Recover the amino acids of this structure.
């Protein structure tokens, strides 16, 4: 934040000049998405290709799934955001540095903002995504700049009697 001196950062600076803050925000949204799953209804018959073929109980190898019109689909956002298949063995650890490294993981297969499903993607993407990201960054900056650090004693708080 010292790079901005005594002036408030602009929208562009906030969203492009603070890479570690950006990494912390994305790591937080990966591990703790505000919505754990999304529900969608198939508007027409469709076939979903599978990245990895699945062998059924009968021994048949399946490369795709048929989805009939009207089928309710649940997108497990939180589960996919911490899947070791996509994010590696440290997927469940808070490690913001992953966002500053070269992306060589299968997470690249996930469409969406920074390969996260936190805001979904496509025509039903979150309209407030950029506002939410900016608000998150501003709150972290203000917290760092103006909040005195203190420890709460472990114990009980007495209820106020009226």
């Amino acid at each position: 934040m010292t790079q901005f001196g005594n002036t408030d950062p602009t929208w562009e600076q906030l969203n492009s000049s603070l890479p570690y803050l950006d990494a912390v925000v994305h790591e937080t949204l990966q591990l703790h998405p505000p919505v754990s799953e999304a529900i969608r209804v198939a508007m027409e018959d469709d076939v979903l290709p599978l990245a990895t073929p699945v062998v059924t109980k009968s021994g048949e190898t399946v490369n795709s799934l048929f989805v009939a019109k009207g089928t309710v689909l649940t997108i497990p956002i939180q589960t996919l955001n911490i899947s070791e298949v996509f994010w590696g063995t440290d997927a469940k650890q808070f490690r913001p540095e992953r966002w500053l490294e070269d992306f060589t993981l299968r997470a690249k297969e996930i469409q969406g903002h920074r390969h996260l499903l936190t805001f979904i993607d496509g025509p039903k993407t979150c309209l407030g995504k950029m506002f939410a990201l900016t608000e998150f960054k501003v709150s972290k900056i203000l917290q760092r700049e103006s909040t005195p650090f203190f420890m709460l004693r472990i114990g009980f708080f007495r209820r106020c009697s009226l």
Summary: The beta strands are 38-41, 46-55, 61-67, 72-75. The longest helix spans residues 129-146. The chain has a mean pLDDT of 81.
